[in-house]
Amino acid sequence: MPVNQLPGSGLLEEADLADAGASPAHPRYYAIATELQREIATGAFALGSVLPAEHRLAARFGVSRDTVRKALERLQQRGVVVSRHGVGWLVQSSLHTQPFSVLRSFAQWAQNRGLTPGGRRVSQERGFATLDEARTLHLARGAAVLRVTRVRTLDDRPVMLERTTYAPWVAAVVESLPADVPSVVAAMEQAGIMMVFGQHHIDAVPASSDDARLLAIRRSSPLLRVRRETYGHDGKAIEHGEDRYLPGTIQFEVDSSAANATVGQQLL
């Protein structure tokens, strides 16, 4: 693929690369789109509000209006903004974008986008592995496991309910963590436990009574579910669980190409 072409975006014009901070691999409008989406997600621009005019955004970022328009069109493709004739660009969603490649760490993904991750542990208990847990974690049925439930937040806003079952060999490390630890993954890495491979399955489910209570929503409200399994360097299973996201809070994006046809590591 030529260096001045990206999948799904067509040829980059010279103006894109002439703007400050641009490069063939990372055109300037990508960065502008990311920054505007971060601001929308954190409430700087409310749902239904009108973004500043294109010429004002161009002056703010030090780029041409054409580059700003491409950034806005990128957000429009993601469903974040919409163009209204005679009005301008309206905010229609506060969706966050998360690539599959960082699904293993909610906190690291958030921090990379200038958001503040947080959460609280609502339950933690030892128990015996169910048949499904034993199969996924490669344990004998009835082996001791640790189950933890957390409500995860972005900038103090609840966005996800996380339920995780940990293998016995990592349970003690997880049990020792504070109830409000921002990143279990980072804490495990500090203890020498590295997650290097994961499998994720995404679907939609209705909120259970427990989901509704913990997320302060109505029972049967739609939730995006991500079921996950992660493994260490030696292929040893570390955890098995699922995350349930509130609607309108996050999306996952997949970038694929003929050279990388396997999409298991990289948006809603």
Automatic annotation (TrEMBL):
Keywords: DNA-binding, Transcription, Transcription regulation. Residues 26-94 form the HTH gntR-type domain. The keyword Chaperone does not apply. InterPro entries: Bact_HTH_transcr_reg (IPR050679), Chorismate_lyase_/UTRA_dom_sf (IPR028978), Tscrpt_reg_HTH_GntR (IPR000524), UTRA (IPR011663), WH-like_DNA-bd_sf (IPR036388), WH_DNA-bd_sf (IPR036390). PANTHER family: MANNOSYL-D-GLYCERATE TRANSPORT/METABOLISM SYSTEM REPRESSOR MNGR-RELATED, MANNOSYL-D-GLYCERATE TRANSPORT_METABOLISM SYSTEM REPRESSOR MNGR-RELATED. This is GntR family transcriptional regulator. It comes from Gryllotalpicola reticulitermitis. The lineage of its organism: Bacteria, Bacillati, Actinomycetota, Actinomycetes, Micrococcales.
